[in-house]
Amino acid sequence: MEDVEASHLKNGSNDGEFECEFTPAEQRKIIHRIDRRLVVTVGVLYCISLMDRTNLSAAAIAGMTKELVLELPYPAGSTVSRYSVVTLVFFTTYIVFQPPSTIIVRKLGPRIHLSTIVVLWGAVMIGMGFVKDWESLAGLRVILGILEAGFFPSCVYLLSTWYTRYDVGKRYSVFYILGSLASACAGILAYGLMQMNGLQGLTGWRWIFIIEGALTCALGLGSYFALVDFPDKAHKSWKFLTEREAKFIIDRVDRDRGDAAPQVFSASKFFRAALDLKIWAYALIFFNTTTVSYALAYFLPIILQRNMGFSVGAAQCLVAPPYAFAGIVMYATGYLGDKYHLRGPIIAFNMVLCLIGLPIMGFHKSAAVRYFGVFLTTAGANSNVPATMSYQANNIRGQWKRAFCSATLVGFGGIGGIAGGLVFRTQDAPTYHPGLYACIAACCFTLVILAVMTPVLIMQNKKAARGEVELEDSDEDHQRGFRYTI
Q: How far is CA 294 from CA 219, 377, 416, in A?
């Protein structure tokens, strides 16, 4: 990650330089230590989270669909398959249980909260390897949704409390890159686990859930020792930082946006954030993004097999290169966004990539060219996840508003997961054109939101510069001068 000039931070005001007892070199060492301990740890856990929630597609083409008869419609006579039901029931609880998670993580602390739910959902994953019917699989997916609901918004919130606004884009990118790595490697890993078919009398797809679940439990236990708390309590987390170093981080974030100090929970403060229309705009952008990214996560191996004619083994392994390419695009756009203080244009660029890739992926006659379209679509959709997280993190202030926004953002991402689990229907195989149209519409909708949001933010910044308004108002004089990031 790029070194940050921690000795000179600005928030749009005339507060001057950030004076600190540490030299610039010492400051960089502290921040890089946080990168290694915090970003890598939550990134590895997110890698497992994403793998556990999206390995259905790998199991589906490995024999689960036939064994559990998942292609039949449910209910009888409907156009929704049992497979789609199994994918979407996860999101019913995933969405509902997200808002409380950012409150709980602040009360319990990240180490206890996150490590506990990771171990528990790993146990659920192991159980999925022993189901006898599709109803049991759906029930376990509901429980998985409850447990995973607390993970992603808590991580987004935790990361935002540690970094200044123009450091966080790269960190979100690395966090999500590790998730993309999971998506890239999941198919290859699943193909390897399929070879255990017949061992202990279990079919290959069951071993995908069992082994990956056991790995999740092991990492969950280890995460208790690796995770760190919020900055105000970090010096107590296994001597991760000294009290002086923790104070440096708190002062640094406070100088940037003025919300580093913990605040007593108030329901009115938490829910008052709902009155800010920007929060719902960020949430809608995230919904559009996850509609496309989850559609790829749940159906890409199936599309590669049925639409492009690849074998089961090839379809599992060919998932990896597009996600590897997405990781490159993701970090590059995160780096540029932080360097030039841009968020909206980065999101627009990612959506344009999708709008180029989706028609190629769906309508070109050559399977090889359609596979190239998969690269563009996967890169655009997945790169937009950290880009949107950075966009909202840069343009809000206040502990509980930040907590509400994280929960709302990820909640709408869960709704996008429901949409993504339904867009590619069984009856539309092998072309899946209706699903492609839905993904194209989602990308266009994001561009429309940006076209409305950007002039509004520019206008508000100009009003603030003239002294007509105070953006994201604060009671503290030293926290004034906040400006929106376009």
A: 24, 12, 7
Q: Which contacts qualify for 350-353: CB closer than 8 Å, 24 or more apart?
A: 350/379, 350/380, 350/381, 350/383, 350/384, 350/387, 351/380, 351/384, 351/443, 351/444, 351/446, 351/447, 352/380, 353/329, 353/377, 353/379, 353/380, 353/383
DSSP 132-186: SSHHHHHHHHHHHHHHHTTTHHHHHHHHHHHS-TTTHHHHHHHHHHHHHHHHHHH
Q: Element (H or E) spanning 337, and its range?
A: helix 320-340
Match 């159906």 to its residue by tokens: 299
DSSP secondary structure string, 310-327? --HHHHHHTTHHHHHHHH
The residue ranking higher by pLDDT, 52 or 193, is 193
- Residue corresponding to tokens 């994201």: 472
Beta carbons of 446 and 289 less than 8 angstroms apart: yes
CA-derived radius of gyration, the chain: 22
Domains (range + CATH), the chain: 24-246+273-463 (1.20.1250.20)
455 preceded by cis ω (within 30°)?
A: no
pLDDT tens per residue across span 262-276: 667 767 777 888 999
- Who contacts 16 (Cβ-Cβ below 8 Å, separation ≥6)? none
Please identify which residue in the block is written with the tokens 């979407």: 88
Return all residues near 175 (Cβ < 8 A) that are at least 6 apart. 39, 42, 43, 46, 155, 159, 386
Percent of the chain with pLDDT over 90: 50
| pLDDT at residue 202 tops 80 | yes
CA 227 centroid distance within chain: 18
pLDDT in tens, 105-128: 888 999 999 999 999 999 999 999
State mean pLDDT over 384-412.
88
CB atoms within 10 A of CB 468: 9
Distance between CA atoms of residues 71 and 73, nearest Å:
6
Spatial distance between the Cα atoms of 168 and 149, rounded to a whole number of angstroms: 22
Cα 178 to Cα 477: distance, rounded to the nearest angstrom = 40
Are 361 and 373 a contacting pair, CB within 8 Å?
A: yes
Specify the 3-state DSSP secondary structure of 272.
Answer: helix
